[in-house]
Design brief:
The chain has 2 domains: 120 residues, Rossmann fold; 226 residues, Hypothetical protein af1432. It contains 16 helices and 6 strands.
């Protein structure tokens, strides 16, 4: 889906010199990002796409130098050059390039650099939030990266780092709200990180709102953080695919709860309900879920709530192949999942998400083990 954003709101600004390669590059980027496309002769005004990552597609760095300087957008930009000999790369870096590629280099390398640039722009915007929110988001993205690396490599999980990040999230609950949390994450293009933090934030803010405290609150937060750790064992080509998964890819993706079980059972001292949240959040009350076809009484409250948050996040996240779904529409769909989701918990979660800023009048609650 080409998501052009010429009038503003672009995630990526592509500035090119009119050569045919730029059309191929823009089509590729348009599958993942909202893009604004401009020529070196008519670059965008400096304030048109504030916070967007910039990609230059040029014959060489020298010929585009004046246009690059005129845009005031070169810092950490991605340059894709027809002539990428060493002196041209050096010139591009002198102009402020963060990454320089030859047009002939593999597409996934260029795409990866653009994703990194977009994520850096999103993370830079966190500076506009409170100190507590900044700390929670920054520690979450760092520790989540460590988590996925450890899971992928079969190494012990960085639990001390993860617990510290979850404590930062707990502190942020007192100064933020779930909408601010999700809005701060919405433009991030590490889809597994964004989805995991949507689920983690939904669980933490909801639990805080209904009066859950102490170890129960920390377990829900940690369980949300870890709920998709098994995706660290799913091929990146599937995790990062910009379109819908085909049948074979979906079967591979459905293996992630089993991988979560393998990864988490190696950890000593991890609360059992945190493991269950990761392994069983795709189970359904009617027994038709996976991986163990559990039903009703076999599924505890934290896992039922994780299932609700997971479905809600999947529906309301913007993805390359679909726009973000409005809350009301998402809950309308979820209310039909009677054999899947716990309708009583869903009702409370819906009320909270539709009015996340209200002052709670509920008595302190505690989820069953």
């Amino acid at each position: 889906m080409n998501r052009d954003a010429q009038t503003g709101g672009a995630e990526v600004v592509l500035i090119h010199d009119g050569r045919p390669f730029a059309a191929r590059l823009s089509a590729r980027l348009g599958e993942r990002f909202r893009i604004g496309i401009y020529t070196v002769d008519a670059p965008p005004p400096p304030d048109r796409h504030k916070g967007a990552a910039t990609v230059f597609s040029l014959a060489d760095a020298e010929s585009g130098g004046a246009a690059v300087r005129a845009t005031l957008r070169a810092e950490d930009a991605v340059f894709v050059l027809a002539d990428a000999r060493p002196h041209q790369r050096q010139m591009a870096r002198a102009l402020g390039a963060g990454n320089v590629f030859a047009e002939a280099e593999p597409a996934h390398l260029i795409n990866g650099a653009v994703i990194q640039a977009v994520n850096q722009a999103v993370e830079s915007a966190w500076q506009n939030l409170s100190a507590e929110e900044q700390r929670a988001l920054q520690s979450s993205v760092k520790s989540f990266g460590s988590l996925m690396t450890a899971g992928r490599n079969g190494e012990p999980l960085p639990m001390a780092e993860i617990h510290a990040a979850c404590e930062d999230i707990r502190v942020a609950l007192g100064v933020s709200d779930v909408d601010r949390w999700m809005n701060a994450l919405s433009g991030h293009h590490d889809g597994t990180y964004r989805h995991s933090m949507y689920v983690c934030g939904a669980l933490a803010f909801f639990a805080h709102e209904i009066g859950i405290k102490g170890s129960d609150l920390m377990d829900l937060t940690t369980g949300g953080f870890l709920h998709d750790v098994g995706k660290s064992r799913i091929p990146l080509a599937i995790l990062d695919k910009p379109g819908k998964l085909d049948e074979a890819e979906w079967e591979t993706m459905k293996g992630h709860p089993g991988f979560s079980r393998e990864i988490m059972l190696r950890e000593h001292g991890l609360e059992e309900r945190i493991v269950r949240m990761a392994v069983h959040h795709h189970e359904k009350l009617d027994g038709t879920g996976y991986p163990d076809a559990l039903s009703s009484a076999q599924i505890d409250d934290p896992t039922r709530l994780t299932a609700i948050a997971d479905v809600y996040a999947a529906l309301t996240e913007e993805r390359a192949y679909k726009p973000a779904m409005p809350k009301e529409k998402a809950f309308g769909i979820m209310s039909s999942f009677k054999g899947h989701l716990d309708m009583d918990l869903l009702s409370r979660f819906r009320e909270f998400m539709l009015d996340s800023s209200r002052e709670t009048a509920a008595a302190p609650a505690k989820l069953s083990a």
